[in-house]
Design goal:
With 156 residues, the chain is an all-alpha fold. It has two helices and no strands. Its main location: membrane.
């Protein structure tokens, strides 16, 4: 065989093989590569969206945490105010009870003083009658002289 002829056959086979590859093999390979490229691009876009969503969610979490902290501080302040109010109410109730007890004790003391004065007047009247009896050397009838004894008690 001739070398030129072999080269022409090889060139024709090469071009036929190149045409066949470009016509039937190359399009599915390019399609698969394009599909893969599209999947990779979609994955990267989804990753970017995921990161953006994660940042947004983290901002929301920080906002919720700040809100929760503020709410907790408010609740603690309200609890402290309520505690102070309860303490003040207890103090006021204790003061009112103490005033009531003191007033009752003063009233009881006044009653006892009055009762003691009455007893003392009775004793003084009895002593006066005995003294007058001894002075007069005779018995003075207390029932007969009740008006006189009552007048003496009021004067004492």
């Amino acid at each position: 065989m001739n070398l030129n002829q072999t080269m022409w056959y090889q060139a024709v086979v090469f071009f036929v093989l190149a045409w066949f590859t470009m016509k039937f093999v190359w399009p599915p390979l390019i399609g698969a590569i394009d599909d893969r490229r599209k999947k990779i691009a979609d994955g990267l876009a989804a990753a970017d969206q995921g990161q953006a969503a994660m940042k947004e969610a983290e901002k929301k979490v920080q906002l919720e945490l700040a809100t929760a902290r503020e709410e907790g501080v408010k609740q603690v302040a309200n609890a402290e105010k309520r505690g102070q109010l309860i303490i003040e109410e207890a103090k006021n109730a204790a003061n009112a009870e103490a005033a009531r007890i003191i007033a009752a004790a003063q009233a009881e003391a006044a009653n006892q003083v009055t009762k003691a004065r009455e007893e003392l007047r009775d004793q003084v009247a009895a002593l006066a009658v005995k003294g007058a009896e001894q002075i007069l050397k005779r018995e003075v009838n207390a029932a007969a002289h009740a008006d006189l004894l009552n007048q003496l008690k009021t004067e004492l």
